[in-house]
Amino acid sequence: MAQPDTAWGPHPEPLAVASAPVPEYGSGSLADLLPTLAAGLGVPGVSAAITELTPADRNCVFLIDGLGWEQLKAHPEDAPFMASLLASSRGGTGRPLTAGYPATTATSLASVGTGLPPGAHGLPGYTVRNPDTGELMNQLRWQPWTAPGPWQPYPTVFQLAHQAGVHAAQVSSPTFEHTPLTKVALSGGTFLGRLPGEDRVDLAAEQLAAGDRSLVYTYFAEVDGAGHRFGVDSDAWRGQLMYADRLVQRLAEQLPPRSALYVTADHGMIDVPFDEEHRIDFDEDWELSAGVALLGGEGRARHVYAVPGAANDVLTCWREVLGEQFWVASREEAIAAGWFGPRIDDRVHGRIGDVVAAARDDVLLIASQREPKESAMVGNHGSMTPAEQFVPLLEVRS
User: Fold this and answer.
1) 3-state secondary structure of 291
2) 28-42 confidence digits (pLDDT tens)
């Protein structure tokens, strides 16, 4: 944040918590998508929050992991079909949705499936502390194993739709069928596992046609994987984007009558250079690690759990060290600012860090010893910048 010069030179100030661009919970976030579609199908107990969308009898959500709005707009030559649909996004307004905070897969998939923001569904990060055990819980891999029902007790929108007589189905990789994350976020109706992308979209089209009222979800992961490993704009990433574009077109061309296809994502992504200026190593920084019992979250969206009595000191230190590049907030400040949504369930409160740090600049807070694999990733995500938060909601209707 630029500051005026004085006789003594510039005096940078920590980023104000209130300056962070909070996701559009309740009107334009991922958590609002399925409730809006289900409301249009007459499912009780949900409401249409994204007012720009028009109801359809058959609805398919195709989620492309890691394909942010800004990345799609920057690569029209690699995704010509999806690029041609940019003006259709968010009900023809040409605007994106916001993923929710943090912009990470476990959190976003739970928001999509439950129709709830992170503070309610309770998956507010990549890794968070389990208040019952004091351990870090990886909510993507579900390690260490934790009973899914108490961790996320709300029904999914698919379950509500199925109970209301809507044909509900998820078409994804067979490896996801029995995972705890699928159970708490995307279960309800019928799960159909298919490996090849073409088979997956063909089956999604069949499932759309299987009911007079349908709600179908399908998923493609490889854009995200290529971005993490090789970076956004790498040849590998572009290749996966090209393939995803062909899958979207293949599905669009098979839509049965009275259908709407929505193409979206769980987050965007940015590349972070491999140098000390852009990658700050928590495991090598005695100031940042002082008073910290557990380091959660991920490089651009950290949950920091202090030893008893040290929370204020940790907050002060993190603001002094990182405050020009990260929005650094106490738990209560982040909650009050609405980072995790308009409400925080009691069971979720202790999962949020005593200190929460969200990157504004192209920087990463790695932990080279604790998280060697994550620390080596080229592409990263999690925070509230447009590159990470904005996701498309492309639409094709039949």
Assistant:
1) coil
2) 999 999 999 999 999
